[in-house]
């Protein structure tokens, strides 16, 4: 199945130039069964990545543009009275899809952001005491603008924790930008993409990922990292058990993506920042705001061999 994943990466890289690492991270997030948060400036290719992944995976795709006046019902759906049937009929919202692009999620209020909590964790939504199952797979790719920009609402910790990984795309290299400038209409290229991984393939890939071996020494290293975040004075709080499971499962998927049947410490180190940075908050200094947690410091101070 690895060759199909490589074909998937190559297909997406034809429309998102020079971002192979971020494409691999997004695919790792997908096959792990988690959700992805992309934080970057507008116009960096966040929507392109989500749309291209939907096309090459053959998934149903919905895009929701989050705004300050959006309500939870705009995402989940609403019951409308049917006079002919003399009853309320539930009309499903855009969340009932396989790949949901929650565009600029931090431009809406916390009340609307919270509409995604149950869906992202339980793969279901409950409306008026009725629970509706969501499709399988269900993959949320959310984008957010830097919090320093006007009209943004910070994502609460409970919402951030629902995202398996948080990544940034960043500016393209000169070569990649030249290819973008001379390569024609990106939207037309996306529409011409063909599915290369079926749902059956995805299920098989997930099963094989779960069978990737993790040695006791690698587990010890992972636990030393988690314990460091919990015991260090540099953080307000440490990584939760959900976070440690996320790090383990993404490392197994990363190893599988790179054609290995076992996890290396390098896999843990490669995924440490996208998996745990948004789950940490640096301790406040002199009563002020805490700085962003330093993943490099964790890697420096936690030994690979205990």
Which characteristics define this entry?
306 residues, alpha/beta, Rossmann fold, Helicase, Ruva Protein, domain 3, 2 domains, five-stranded parallel sheet, two-stranded antiparallel ribbon, 14 helices
Task: Give the structure's gist in a few sentences.
The protein is an alpha/beta fold and 306 residues long. It has helices at residues 2-13, 20-32, 46-57, 73-76, 110-113, 117-122, 157-160, 174-182, 186-191, 199-210, 216-231, 241-257, 265-276, 295-301, and strands at residues 36-39, 61-65, 77-82, 87-92, 99-103, 124-127, 130-133, 139-144, 165-167, 235-237, 281-282. It folds into 2 domains: 2-201, P-loop containing nucleotide triphosphate hydrolases (Rossmann fold); 211-301, Helicase, Ruva Protein, domain 3, CATH 1.10.8.80.
Q: Helix-strand pattern, N to C?
A: HHEHEHEEEHHEEEHEHHHHEHHEH
- Can you tell me the CATH superfamily of the largest domain? P-loop containing nucleotide triphosphate hydrolases
The poorly predicted ranges are none
- Proportion of residues in helical segments: 40-55%
- Rg, please? 20 Å
Measured by DSSP, the beta-strand proportion falls in 15-25%
Number of domains: 2
Strand order of the largest sheet: 2-5-8-1-9
The third-level CATH topology of the largest domain is Rossmann fold
Number of helices: 14
Number of strands: 11
Distance between the termini: 35 Å
Name of the CATH class of the largest domain: Alpha Beta
């Amino acid at each position: 199945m690895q060759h199909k994943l490589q074909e998937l990466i190559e297909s997406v890289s034809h429309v998102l130039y020079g971002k192979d690492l971020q494409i691999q991270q997004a695919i790792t997030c997908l096959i792990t069964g988690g959700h992805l948060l992309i934080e970057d400036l507008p116009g960096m290719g966040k929507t392109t990545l989500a749309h291209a992944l939907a096309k090459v995976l053959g998934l149903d795709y919905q895009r929701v543009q989050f705004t300050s006046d959006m309500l939870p019902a705009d995402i989940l759906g609403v019951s409308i009275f049917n006079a002919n049937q003399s009853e309320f009929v539930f009309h499903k919202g855009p969340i009932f899809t396989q790949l949901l692009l929650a565009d600029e999620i931090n431009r809406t209020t916390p009340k609307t952001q919270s509409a995604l909590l149950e869906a992202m964790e339980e793969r279901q939504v409950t409306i008026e005491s009725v629970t509706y199952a969501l499709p399988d797979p269900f993959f949320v790719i959310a984008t957010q603008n830097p919090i320093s920009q006007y009209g943004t609402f910070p994502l609460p910790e409970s919402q951030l924790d629902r995202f398996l990984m948080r990544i940034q795309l960043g500016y393209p290299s000169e070569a990649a930008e030249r290819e973008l400038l001379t390569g024609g209409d990106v939207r037309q290229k996306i529409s011409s993409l063909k599915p290369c991984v079926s749902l059956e393939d995805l299920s098989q890939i997930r099963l094989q990922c779960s069978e990737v071996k993790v040695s006791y020494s690698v587990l010890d290293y992972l636990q030393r990292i988690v314990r460091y975040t919990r015991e260090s004075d540099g953080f307000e709080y440490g990584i939760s058990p959900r976070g440690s499971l996320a790090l383990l499962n993404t490392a197994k998927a990363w190893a599988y993506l790179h054609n290995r049947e076992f996890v290396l410490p390098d896999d843990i180190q490669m995924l440490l920042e996208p998996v745990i940075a948004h789950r940490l908050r640096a301790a406040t200094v002199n009563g002020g705001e805490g700085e962003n947690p330093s993943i490099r410091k964790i890697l420096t101070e936690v030994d690979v061999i205990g």
